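Q: Given only this backbone (352 positions), what sequence would you predict?
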């Protein structure tokens, strides 16, 4: 800028200088000098303590903040566009403590007054700060209250990013996961058959409805409201979705570990069977529930990575990636006629 100003406090007055720069020409070299200006604030605004004056520059305005003994900060302004150093009162801020500061928002022509909160809770490592945001043009107070350091990402933004990363991970896993091909030809017990996809789908929907009902009650969102598109992008709606998935993963893991089936599978007559090494389950005569780690892997992929789990739709025996990694099957049991006892082959696993 063509000129700048600086100020120093001396005794009970403020002295200000203007830095003037003259560009060089063919006749005269460049020249920069300091010129003292008559920039003394009103006498009644000059404090007795040298520590109660602050200065800032914003939008071609030289700003001084002067705190009086009564705790009132008077904000003064002087235009940098004129050689007449006339001070004008912009605004006053009451109840400012001794620990205060002045800052400028140059692009919007505003000045900020910060001070420590006198009601700061005892034992707090860093005192709370209060803030007053003032317009230099009109002296209007845009905001006065606690100085809050806002997170650049809202909670809703964070959840959207998490969901995006999970979906991205699922897409990557579709091409990266290579399940163990050691199962080969899978043989089922004589009294069991693979559950058809429709049974598994209905069982999953029942589990989803139960978990969603619990999540909506916990968050306090009406269940029917979650059927609207707007609810899915709202903050409460996203919390319900994440909580529902968490309930499904945890409850599915526990139910399948201890009972071999979730409530939905129980109603549909389905059961989760853990395959022995090699895939031959024909000699199993009773329940073969998955272990806790295997059930966790199965449900984490099924509910945490839905795109990966949906690969079951293109698998010949409807095993999703969670089943393949956990070495499990979803079966239904039936009564075997007398004389029957041959194992039921389930066909190739097509894990690759």
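A: Predicted residues:
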């Amino acid at each position: 800028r063509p000129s700048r100003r600086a100020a120093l406090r001396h005794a009970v007055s403020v002295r200000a200088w203007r830095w003037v720069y003259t560009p060089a020409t063919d006749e005269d070299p460049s020249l920069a000098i300091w010129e003292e200006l008559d920039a003394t604030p009103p006498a009644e605004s000059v404090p007795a303590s040298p520590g109660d004056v602050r200065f800032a520059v914003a939008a071609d305005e030289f700003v001084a903040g002067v705190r009086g003994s009564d705790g009132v900060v008077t904000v003064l302004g002087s235009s940098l566009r004129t050689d007449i150093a006339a001070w004008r009162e912009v605004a006053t801020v009451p109840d400012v403590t001794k620990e205060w500061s002045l800052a400028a928002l140059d692009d919007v022509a505003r000045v900020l007054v910060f001070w420590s909160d006198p009601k700061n809770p005892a034992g707090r490592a860093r005192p709370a700060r209060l803030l007053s945001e003032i317009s230099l043009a009109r002296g209007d107070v845009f905001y006065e209250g606690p100085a809050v350091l806002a997170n650049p990402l809202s909670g809703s933004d964070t959840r959207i990013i998490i969901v995006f990363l999970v979906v991205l991970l699922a897409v990557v896993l579709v091409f990266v996961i290579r399940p163990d091909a050691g199962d080969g030809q899978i043989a089922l017990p004589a009294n069991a058959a693979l559950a058809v996809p429709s049974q598994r789908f209905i069982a999953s929907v029942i589990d989803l409805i139960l978990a969603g009902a619990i999540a909506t009650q916990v968050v306090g969102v009406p269940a029917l409201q979650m059927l609207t598109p707007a609810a899915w992008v709202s903050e409460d709606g996203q919390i319900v979705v994440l909580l529902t998935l968490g309930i499904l993963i945890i409850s599915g893991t526990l139910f399948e570990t201890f009972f071999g089936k979730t409530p939905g599978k129980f109603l549909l007559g389905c059961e989760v069977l853990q395959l022995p090494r090699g895939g031959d389950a024909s000699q199993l005569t009773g329940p073969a529930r998955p272990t806790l780690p295997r059930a966790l892997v199965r449900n984490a992929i099924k509910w945490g990575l839905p795109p990966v789990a949906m690969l079951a739709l293109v698998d010949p025996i409807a095993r999703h990636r969670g089943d393949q990694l956990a070495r499990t099957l979803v079966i239904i049991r039936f009564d075997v006629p007398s004389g029957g006892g041959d194992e039921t082959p389930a066909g190739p696993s097509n894990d690759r």
